[in-house]
Amino acid sequence: MALVAGGVAMIVASLLHPSLETDTTIPQTEVKLVAAHVFYTLAYLLVLLGLPGLYGHEFVRMGRLGLAGFVVAFSGTALLAVSGNFGFIAPVLASESPGTIDAISRYGPVVVFNGVTAIAFMVGWVIFGLAMARTDTLPAASGALVAVGAPTHLIGFGLAQLASPPLWPIAIAGSVALGAGLAWPGYQLWRGSEEGIR
């Protein structure tokens, strides 16, 4: 159930999130921004709780590829959850010290942390999605959604922030794919465990 709820929360978060975060847009979209980060935090927490169950159920079928994907996706998701804290402090910074937003974004350790986080998140989920698709018990399409959704979401987010806010629907499409790709096998495993109890 954690993956189902986490997948839905991820989609809701992306639909709520403003397409641009600057020192001038953050105060105007503060309610949506904070609400989106509440849902992202909840989504990542639920995914981190549900992912070990999915991997534990399928680890033999996923093999080494699945183990590598699990470790990297779990780590990248945990790091992304930590970096999401910025969404809660950004409104204060934007109103009290607008220049700080850009200064933080350009600060070397933050750039490195965000880069490592993005790479781990994208690569981990691509590998895990491929391992999911190779099993004969999980829907192959759910693995494809995971493998395509994670990089599409983060690349769309980056394009909207750095190039053009109208590109935000790319991030939403990626989030929908990743959320659905995780919720689908989560639901399948939940229904299977329910039927096993009866």
What does this structure look like?
This protein has 198 residues and is mostly helical. The protein has one domain (2-197). The protein contains 8 helices and no strands. The chain has helices at 2-16, 25-28, 30-83, 86-96, 98-106, 108-134, 140-162, 168-197. The chain starts with a helix and ends with a helix. The model has no long low-confidence stretch (mean pLDDT 93).
Helix-strand pattern: HHHHHHHH
- What amount of the residues lies in strands? under 5%
Mean pLDDT: 93
The share of residues in helices is over 70%
Q: How many discrete structural domains?
A: 1
Distance between the termini: 18 Å
Number of separate helices? 8
Structural class: mainly alpha
Biggest β-sheet strands, sense, barrel:
none
How many extended strands? 0
Radius of gyration: 17 Å
- Uncertain spans, ≥5 residues at pLDDT below 50? none
Shape: elongated
Question: How are the SSEs ordered, and which strands pair?
Answer:
Blueprint: H1 2-16, H2 25-28, H3 30-83, H4 86-96, H5 98-106, H6 108-134, H7 140-162, H8 168-197
